[in-house]
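Work Package 4 report. The design task specified in the project plan requires that, given a folded chain encoded as structure tokens, an amino acid be chosen for each position. We show below one input record used in the internal validation round.
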């Protein structure tokens, strides 16, 4: 791109709005659309111009979308009145949601027919850190387009990883989220076992955070777990949606996933108990309930 592109943003939710705001803060002209008027009002206070309709927002040189699921992406992007049919020839469509490879491939086909460049750009990270610019992204699609927009992506991500020209980025995001879900369930069982062995709550959390099993996610969750804070950065409802995408992709690719199916059942049980709005680390609380464990003593001294 030889000059600063006009940016449009479709979907100003908890993740979309802070990312769009960072792009605006970086000096780009950003126009946003969301069906919820309240989100548009908030966006206006963050330097984002308001579009009256999705069609009005579609005139940008680069159009982003951040949508909740496959159904929303199909509805927004495809069909005679869809986003792709309204975009100008040669524009770039960047889709950052977690959606299935199948629906993403449908969008790719429609984008090609419309003369629109399509970049898949699922985000790793959550809404709580989106405003910091410390998200990462996985990209697939035309390599030339990725390199052209990379300075724009750097406005809201600390790392940009190019993976291929097809649906590779979609599979990468599903693979990462599978590891997060399985780790959360594993932590629930590990912590319950440790509590049965009379380890103090803070002690076992310290052990996990400084062990061979400590991943960035484990270290990140130790703080909230120490405070018994299960407020959502990414909810169990959202994790179920992603696990269903993962299992669907596995079936389509003939990949056996018995462990993933059990992880999905755990999250299903949490939702059935009415706790689907809790953070995805809630398997810790769920396994305690299954084990008959109450709230732990949060400060138990090893010297007592």
């Amino acid at each position: 791109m030889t000059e600063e592109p006009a940016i449009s943003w479709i979907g100003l939710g908890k993740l979309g709005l802070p990312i769009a705001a960072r792009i605006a803060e970086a000096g780009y002209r950003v126009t946003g659309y969301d069906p919820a008027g309240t989100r548009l009002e908030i966006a206006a206070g963050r330097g984002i111009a308001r579009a009256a309709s999705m069609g009005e927002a579609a005139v940008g040189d680069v159009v982003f979308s951040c949508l909740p699921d496959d159904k929303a992406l199909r509805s927004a992007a495809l069909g005679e009145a869809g986003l792709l049919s309204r975009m100008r020839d040669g524009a770039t469509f960047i889709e950052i949601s977690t959606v299935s490879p199948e629906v993403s491939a449908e969008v790719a086909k429609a984008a090609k027919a419309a003369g629109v460049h399509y970049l898949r750009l699922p985000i790793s990270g959550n809404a709580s850190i989106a405003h910091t610019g410390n998200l990462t992204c996985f990209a697939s699609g035309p390599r030339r387009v990725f390199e052209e927009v990379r300075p724009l992506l750097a406005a809201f991500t600390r790392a940009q990883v190019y993976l291929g020209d097809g649906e590779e980025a979609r599979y990468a995001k599903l693979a990462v989220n599978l590891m997060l879900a399985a780790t959360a369930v594993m932590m629930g069982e590990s912590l319950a076992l440790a509590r049965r062995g009379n380890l103090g709550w803070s002690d076992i959390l310290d052990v996990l955070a400084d062990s061979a099993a400590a991943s960035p996610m484990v270290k990140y969750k130790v703080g909230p777990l120490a405070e018994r804070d299960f407020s959502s950065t990414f909810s169990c409802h959202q994790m179920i949606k992603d696990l269903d995408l993962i299992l669907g992709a596995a079936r389509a690719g003939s990949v056996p996933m018995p462990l993933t199916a059990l992880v999905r059942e755990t999250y299903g049980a949490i939702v059935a108990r009415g706790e689907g709005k809790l953070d995805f680390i809630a398997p810790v609380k769920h396994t305690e309930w299954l084990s008959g464990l109450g709230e732990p003593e949060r400060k138990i001294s090893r010297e007592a």
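The first helix runs from residue 16 to 25. Validation will be extended to a larger panel in the next phase.
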